[in-house]
Amino acid sequence: MLQPARMRKVKILVLGEDLETVTSGLGRLGVMHLSRADADVEGLKLTGLKTERETRRWQSLSGRIEHIARMLGVKNVGAERPAGGFHDPEHIEREVFKLEDELNESLKQQQELTEQVGELHELISQAESFAGLELSLDRLDSFSFLHFAIGALPEQRMKSLKAELGSRALLVPLGSGAEARKILAISSKKGRWALQTALANHGFKSETFGGKFVAMPDELLRTAHQQIDEADRKLRDLQMELDARGTRNAELLRGWHYRVRIAGKMAEAQGHFASTEATSLIVGWVPAKAVARLHDEVLKLTGNRVVVEVLDPDKHPEEFKDIPTLFQHSRLLQPFELLVSGFGTPGYNEVEPTILVAVTFLFMFGAMFGDIGHGLTLAVLGLLVNRLADKSNPTLQAFGRLILMAGVAGTVGVLSY
Question: Which of 198, 143, 135 is nearest to 167 (CA)?
Answer without folding.
Answer: 198
